Amino acid sequence: METCGLIQQWLISSQTEVKPSLLAQILLDITRDPTSILSVTNILSTQEYDARKCVDLLAQVTIHSRSTLHEDAVDTLVDFVCQRLDQPLVVTRCLDMMKSLIEDDRIKETNALRIYECMINHLPQQKLHQDARYKTLIIIDKFLHSHVNALQQQTRFDFVRGFITLIDGEKDPRNLLIAFELVRDVIAKFDISSYIEDLFDFVFCYFPITFKPPPNDPYQITTEDLKNSLRQCLASTPYFANFATPLLIDKLLTSTGSAKKDTMETIGLCAPAYGAHALLPHAQSIFDVLAKEVYNASSVTMENTALKTIHQVVATLASGICVADIRVPVEKAIRSLLDPCITQLKHPESKNAKSAGYILRSAASAADPACACVVHTIIPMLTGLLSADDSAIRRKAIMDIFIEILKGNNTLYGSLDEVVKDDASRMDDDTVSPLAAYKQEILVAFMSALSSNDEHLRLSGIKGIRLMVVIRRFLLPDEFENAIQQLIHIFLTYKENQTSRMALTTLVTVCKVDSSSIEDHVLPVLLDRLSSGETNDMILDDFSYALEAIDALSFQPQIARVIIPSLMEKLGANLSNQENTDFHYARCLTRSILSAIRATSKDPQMIQMAQERVFPCLLLQSVKAALRLPDAWRLDKDLINLWALILAIIQRGSSASYQQGVIGDAFKVFVFGDLSVVPLPSVQEKSEPLLLIPATTPNFDISVLFSAVAGNCKKEVEAPVSSCPELITDLALSATKQNFIFSQQLAIARLIGSVANKCKNVQMPGSIKALVTNHLIPMIKNTTTPETTRKASIFLMSWLAKALLIKGHSLGFELLDSLLQQLQSPDDLGAEAAESFIVILHDDDLVLTKAAFANISILYKQRVFYYCKSVLIQGAESSSEVIKINHLVAFSHIITNIPTQIITNEIQKLVPSIIASLLVITNPPPLLSLIRVIQTVIPDATKTILLSSFSINDNIMEQLVLALLGLTKGYRMDVRIASLRCLRWFALHPITKKELRFLAPLVTKHLATALDDKKRQVRKEAVSCREKW
């Protein structure tokens, strides 16, 4: 055989590495004839050749031909590897062969067992390298997952004993993680009763484990990973209890710092596994140490760890109460935890009394017997200490202990406002909380606190009431009502006060569990605070606080269905009063209606109510106002825009059939001028289309309502016109030729964009291209055309581009090219084209979004960015200042409206343009957006920027900082504040703080102007910024 000759030649040569051509030839022969591997193995089994070369070659052959190995070949390979596993020089490659063989599911059980037997016979005597030990553990893991039945049934060797010898003495962190996991597997799958002490010795010798990860650790192993895995090993079997418990107690008594924390966490995890019998003899010692840690906590973390451990230990002990022979000792053990707490509570104002409250909460939340013991012992004592003549500080301290016990009760039994993770601990239908026996005393104490003049005592009272109202079947209806009335009184009485905030959040909690009570007792009070609208009979604070509460409570559909009609009634009364010229109250009412509808838009009953009570009313009144009818409501542009959002949300939540009917009526009114569908008896049925009547003021322009209705229909809803392409063309020509105000232009553009995006007519792209080519572009290029018409054409083209780009249509990029070319215009049209990029990438509130059922292509913003990036960066280097500004404005709009990850990936190329934008743009909105992007992206990318290929003399980060410093003077106040906050963040972020330290003198020098700013808020930010630098 030619291949055999090649193998022999290589074996006697001085080469140590396997030649790729030789390996390829052997594998080719095996593919053609699988039995040829037997010949290869026979040659390599010869004693005269270098064992390392033989094993290396056969290992590579085995690994690459595993799928073609037949049964005889596997037998031969197992013989080969088992005969050589005792040779230290080849053991690693032997393990590679074993790993490859054992991973093949076709391997016979006898061969698998032989491999394991060989491992336990030969490997423990050798000092293996870390990599070899890792491979050994991986092979054992494969055994435990694929051959566990064979291992359990065989009698040839002692698997568990061999396993212990194989893993003993391991120190490598990666291997330890695997070893700990294997220990848990062996404990779960094998009888370890004869090897408990040996296994425990292996595990506990690492406790408490310490590990400092090396820099740039490829395995990313942390100390917590090792601690958690070791802890799980110790808690994996109750057999460890007798060995582990006294040692853990000793560690608890003698250790400090992280070792003590580790010990507490380990006891907490092991307690349920070891059981009450194991913990009972040591309960007093455990509680003494843990309670001392709570009383004298060195940190919040240590205190919380001690409290969690107390919880687990008490829960474990309480589980032993049902065992007759240890019932009394268990009760005594729990009492031993409570007795020191009772001593501390005799002085409730002391710090230790507060800590005792935490201990009582942990104990009460552990188990029903413990909770009963805490309640029946502590509550009578506290009520005996409480007196109405006591100081507010003392009363508050007692209230806080009540609160901790209530928290423990609610954690154990569950509450109405939280999902209880452990269903077994949830209060059964016939279970009564032990607190029920003392309900009146606790409730009276909390209600008394609510009426106190001390704010802190009131806060404690509110917290207690909140915890009581969520206990199931606890408060009677009249008690519940009284508590709610007190809360709403506090909310409306103590305005701009922490107790007011807490009262409102408690009412929100009550609303979650009992909306009917809020409807009956809270809403009438809040609505009484709102004006009837006919006169200015209210105080600003009254209605603003009432509406704030309404907004917070209207997330519940039941509340929203009640409150919206009332708000609509008050809105109508206010807007019907023609003598009232102020719109602030009406806007606030409208925002509350919008908030309620938005929060409950998924509720079918809510949407139905809005369809019947809100939608037709707003449309009718808006049409009346547009026609200047005498009984029309007063309107302004802000109200109209809010109404548009309301109509859009109702439309989105409606069925396609409802939308089809609504859009039919809307087209009749706004496009065809048919008023017959509107109940207006004093008006002719035919008029000019409301969409196309040029408005003289935004206060009477209701076109945005039509775009809200038409632009939020589902894709299956069809516009009631003969041809959508013709509709777009007609509307576009009307918008460019008539002298419309901006709000009308925007409404028509939104409508055109929505139709272009959703229309299924195959002629639509061609019609849009013809419209742009034959009408819009010629009007833009014709210098004799009025400037307003040219700007309107650019505006419409940007919306068409947005609609098509979102959809992923190639025509959108053609329109984008036209807008990019227009940036070269030195007149105002170039600036208009630059502003169009915010239209293209900014998510509109009303249309062309996923919520508005638009056709959206994923990553469209990224595609636009990469398509425009090079053109804009080149344009920013133009010699013409105007053209340069146009490109930079467009650039700023793009990067402030794309995901920050894209900017991070391209940061080296974008920073110069960002700096240039900061230097030339004067309009505050894009500047503020740019500063936000810089604050988000630059800190994490600073190293990349500093190491980039910029010129050595061109310190790009220094230029960026100087540009931000330039914005701290001479610009609008919000720009000055934003730039100062950005600079302050540079001084706080760990990367920029280190990398930009050399700029500190420069920054502090340039902040002198901001420190003398006329505005106090700017000076305050400047002082904070300078302090951090």
Describe the structure.
The structure is a single chain. 69% of the residues lie in helices and 0% in strands. The chain is an all-alpha fold. It is globular, with a radius of gyration of 39 Å.
Give structural attributes.
mainly alpha, 1029 residues, 69% helix
Describe the structure concisely for a colleague:
It is built from 53 helices and no strands.
How would the blueprint of this fold be written?
Elements: H1 2-12, H2 20-32, H3 36-44, H4 51-64, H5 71-84, H6 91-102, H7 109-122, H8 130-146, H9 148-153, H10 159-167, H11 173-189, H12 196-204, H13 223-234, H14 241-254, H15 257-274, H16 276-279, H17 283-295, H18 300-318, H19 327-345, H20 351-364, H21 368-385, H22 392-413, H23 439-450, H24 455-469, H25 477-493, H26 498-513, H27 515-521, H28 523-528, H29 540-553, H30 557-576, H31 584-599, H32 604-613, H33 615-626, H34 637-652, H35 656-670, H36 703-710, H37 724-737, H38 742-758, H39 764-781, H40 787-807, H41 811-822, H42 828-841, H43 860-875, H44 881-895, H45 900-905, H46 907-920, H47 924-946, H48 956-966, H49 973-988, H50 990-995, H51 1000-1006, H52 1008-1011, H53 1016-1028
